[in-house]
Write a structure and sequence with these properties.
22 strands; Helicase, Ruva Protein, domain 3; ibrinogen binding protein from staphylococcus aureus fold; 588 residues; 13 helices; single chain
Length: 588
C-alpha cells in the first residue's frame, strides 16, 4: 500500500521527536529519485530517507547503508550548498496530506539566517522532492514538471511553489464527531468505503475498509442504505481513530500472509480486518516501513536495472531463433542428397549407353532393392562423363553444406541454451550485484561493449542463495552463471549436484560432508532446482542429480555450461508457496 495520512502523521511525529533541532551533517543521493540526510540530534546520528520512486515513494528514518555514486548528481550538490550544516527547526504535514515539509534553518552566502524547505510529495507516479527558499520560490526538484507534462502546476526553478490540488477533500483532524457523518451524507450512489476515502484527506482505501469493519458495516454498502444506528457507529469509530492520531497514539505494524510469510499491508493503526493473518508490532514506524519495503524496493530496483539487460538478451535470442529457422530450411534442402550420388553412379555404370546431346536416359536403379526404373535428367551440352561429374560435384557440395549447417545449428542451439540460462538467471536475481554479474558476463562474452576505462574483471560480489534442510544439510543455489561455475567447480567431489534436465536453470549443491543425504533433503534441493529454472511454472519437471565429481566443464564452454554423467532423475512440480516460505527462512 502507499503511505496514507495516518502513517505520514506517525512519521512526522517520530522525526520531530528524535531529530528536531538536529544538525544536517551530510547529504547523499544514492539514486536519481532518492535523498539521504544524515542528521545529528539528541546525541545520536540518524539517516533520514526521502524517496520519490513512483512505485514506492516514502520518507522515514533508515538504517540501510546505500552505495553512493562516485560523482554526486547536480540536485545533491544543490542540497549540500543550501542545507549542509543547517538545523531542522520544524517538520510539517500540511492539511493531513501525503506531503512532508522539512523546515531547515541555515546561513546563506550573505551571512543571513534563512529558512529553506525540503518538501517530499508522496503521490504515486506524481511523487517529487522539491527545495524552496525562504520566499517559497523553487530552487530545484528531483523531477522538473513543465506545462507540457502538467497543465495543473509547474515545478521548475524560479516558480513559486504551490501544493498539489486537494480535490476538495476535508481534513479529518479539523472535524468534531458529529461532522464526519454530515460530510458523508452528500455522497449518495457511492459505496461507503469509496465515499470515505474520497471525502477526507489522508484516508487510504485500507483505512476506509478498517473503519467500516470496526463499525460492523459492509464496506460495499451504499450510504443511503445505512440506518441511523449504523451512522452513529461509523461516526464514533472515525472520531476514535482521529482522536488517537491527534494524541500521537500509534500502533505501527505489518500484516503477513500466513501461507507465504510475505508482508501484505502495513499501518499505524491496529488493523482488525485481517483475521487469521500474522501481525508484527513495532515501536518505530520507520522500522515497520523499512521492513515492509525492503523486499519490494529491492525487487523494483532489480527490475529497473535488469530491463536493458533483458532487452539485450531477448534481441540476441530472437536473432538466434531466426538464424536457426534459416539453418533448418537449409538442412532440409540438402538432407536428401544421396540421390545425386546415385545419379552420378548410374551414369558412370551406363556411360557407353549414353550419347552427348541426350536430355535424359532411363535405367534400372540397382541401388534400390526393388530394382525400379529411374529416369535421370541430362544436360545435352555435356558429355556423359561430364554429366556424371556434375552430379558428383552437386552431391559433394550438398554434403559439405549439410555438415557445415549441422555444425552451425549445434552452435546456435548452444547459444540459445546459454542465452535462455541468462534469462533464467535474471528471474532468479535477488540483488543489484546479481544483475551486475550478468552484465559483466555479457561484456566478457561480447554481447555488450566494454566502456573505455572500465574493467569487467572484478571479483564476484553477489552470493548464491543458501538454505538449511531440516536435517541440517547446507543447500546452495546459484542465481547466475558466474555463481553456478563458482558453486560447481569449487564444491567437494562428494557433494551432490542437481540441475533441471535439458532446461536452463540454477546449479544446486548439497554439502554432504561425506554423509548420506536423506530423501527429504534431496527432494528439497530438487524442488529448488526446479523452481529456479525456466520450468518453474511447469509440472513434473525432470531434475538430474549426481555426485559433483561427475560434473565437468568442457574447455572453452560458456559460463554455467557443463556436462555430467552417472545421473539419476527426479520429477518435481514446483510449489511457489513452499519456496517462498523457504526463502523467508533462508540464510543471508
Amino acid at each position: 500500500m502507499a503511505l496514507d495520512g495516518l502513517v505520514i502523521s506517525n512519521i512526522v511525529y517520530e522525526i520531530k521527536k528524535l531529530m528536531l533541532a538536529g544538525k544536517i551533517d551530510k547529504i547523499y543521493q544514492p539514486e536519481s529519485d532518492e535523498i539521504i540526510l544524515q542528521i545529528r540530534g539528541n546525541g545520536a546520528n540518524y539517516r533520514l530517507l526521502l524517496n520519490s520512486n513512483s512505485n514506492y515513494p516514502r520518507s522515514h528514518i533508515t538504517n540501510i547503508q546505500r552505495k553512493n555514486p562516485l560523482s554526486p548528481p547536480m540536485f545533491c550538490m544543490l542540497l549540500r550548498k543550501h542545507l549542509s550544516g543547517g538545523k531542522l527547526i520544524d517538520v510539517v504535514q500540511p492539511d493531513f496530506e501525503r506531503i512532508i515539509e522539512f523546515h531547515i534553518e541555515n546561513i546563506n552566502e550573505l551571512g543571513d539566517l534563512t529558512v529553506k524547505k525540503l518538501i517530499i510529495e508522496i503521490m504515486g507516479r506524481h511523487s517529487n522532492i522539491i527545495l524552496t527558499d525562504e520566499k517559497n520560490c523553487i530552487l530545484d526538484s528531483v523531477i522538473r514538471v513543465s506545462k507540457d507534462k502538467s497543465s495543473v502546476r509547474e515545478v521548475l526553478p524560479g516558480k513559486i511553489y504551490q501544493r498539489p490540488p486537494s480535490q476538495d477533500k476535508i481534513n479529518p483532524l479539523s472535524l468534531e464527531e458529529a461532522d464526519f457523518v454530515t460530510q458523508l451524507k452528500g455522497n449518495k450512489g457511492t459505496k461507503l468505503q469509496q465515499t470515505i476515502y474520497k471525502t477526507f484527506t489522508g484516508i487510504s482505501p485500507l483505512v476506509a475498509s478498517e473503519i467500516c469493519h470496526r463499525a460492523n458495516i459492509d464496506a460495499s454498502a451504499y450510504l443511503e442504505e445505512l440506518r441511523d444506528e449504523d451512522l452513529k457507529r461509523l461516526s464514533k469509530v472515525m472520531n476514535g481513530i482521529f482522536k488517537q492520531v491527534k494524541a500521537n497514539l500509534f500502533q505501527p505494524q505489518i500484516i503477513y500472509d500466513p501461507h507465504t510469510g510475505e508482508p501484505v499491508e502495513f499501518s499505524s493503526i491496529d488493523l482488525s480486518q485481517f483475521t487469521g493473518y500474522a501481525k508484527k508490532y513495532y515501536d518505530s514506524v520507520s522500522e515497520a516501513i523499512e521492513d515492509y519495503y525492503k523486499v519490494k524496493d529491492r525487487l523494483s530496483r532489480i527490475k529497473e536495472k535488469s530491463r536493458n539487460i533483458h532487452k539485450i538478451i531477448q534481441n540476441n535470442l530472437e536473432r538466434c531463433y531466426k538464424k536457426k529457422e534459416i539453418q533448418i530450411r537449409q538442412l532440409q534442402e540438402v538432407s536428401d542428397c544421396d540421390y545425386l550420388r546415385v545419379f552420378g553412379e548410374l551414369i558412370t555404370s551406363n556411360i557407353y549407353s549414353i550419347s552427348k546431346g541426350m536430355t535424359s536416359f532411363t535405367t534400372v536403379n540397382f541401388y534400390d532393392e526393388n530394382m525400379t526404373e529411374l529416369t535421370i535428367p541430362l544436360d545435352p551440352v555435356l558429355t556423359p562423363a561430364q554429366n556424371a561429374q556434375y552430379y558428383f560435384n552437386k552431391y559433394n557440395k550438398a554434403k559439405r553444406t549439410k555438415n557445415a549447417v549441422q555444425e552451425q545449428l549445434k552452435r546456435v542451439n548452444e547459444e540459445i541454451s546459454y542465452l535462455e540460462s541468462l534469462l533464467s538467471s535474471l528471474e532468479a536475481s535477488t540483488d543489484i550485484e546479481d544483475i551486475e554479474d550478468i552484465k559483466k558476463e555479457l561484456q566478457e562474452e561480447g554481447y555488450i561493449k566494454n566502456k573505455k576505462g572500465k574493467s569487467s574483471n572484478e571479483k564476484v560480489k553477489s552470493k548464491p542463495l543458501h538454505f538449511k534442510s531440516a536435517k541440517g544439510f547446507d543447500i546452495y543455489v546459484g542465481k547466475n552463471n558466474r555463481q553456478n561455475d563458482e558453486l560447481t567447480l569449487h564444491s567437494a567431489p562428494t557433494d551432490l549436484w542437481l540441475h533441471t534436465k535439458d532446461i536452463p536453470g540454477s546449479h544446486v549443491i548439497i554439502k554432504t560432508e561425506n554423509k548420506e543425504v536423506p530423501e527429504e533433503t534431496l527432494l528439497l534441493a530438487a524442488h529448488l532446482a526446479a523452481y529456479y529454472s525456466k520450468a518453474r511454472n511447469s509440472s513434473n519437471v525432470p531434475v538430474d542429480y549426481t555426485l559433483r565429481k561427475n560434473v565437468k566443464k568442457p574447455r572453452g564452454a560458456k559460463p554455467g555450461m557443463v556436462i555430467y554423467e552417472n545421473q539419476k532423475t527426479l520429477y518435481i512440480t514446483p510449489d511457489e508457496i513452499k519456496i517462498k516460505q523457504l526463502i523467508s527462512k533462508s540464510i543471508q
